[in-house]
Write a structure and sequence with these properties.
Elements lengths: L14 H13 L1 H25 L14
Helix pairs in contact: 1-2
């Protein structure tokens, strides 16, 4: 599917959520990878849409008149 490479993340989580994350990492590391990928993908899409909405021609409708 994609070329991948390992990364190491360090995050601060509430203790109960951190314990759940550690358990998931042990039992199903692929799931945790997909969750992180999903979150980063959503953020990327959101930023792209937000930047597009802030462009000077955002909201303009392109029309062509036949002559």
């Amino acid at each position: 599917m994609w070329k991948t490479c390992p990364v190491q993340l360090k995050v601060q989580l509430p203790r109960d959520i951190a314990e759940q994350a550690e358990e998931v990492q042990k039992t199903d590391p692929e799931f945790l990878s997909r969750v992180v990928l999903y979150g980063l993908t959503r953020r990327s899409i959101y930023r792209h849409l937000r930047e597009g909405a802030n462009s000077p021609d955002a909201g303009e409708v392109q029309t062509q008149v036949a002559t």
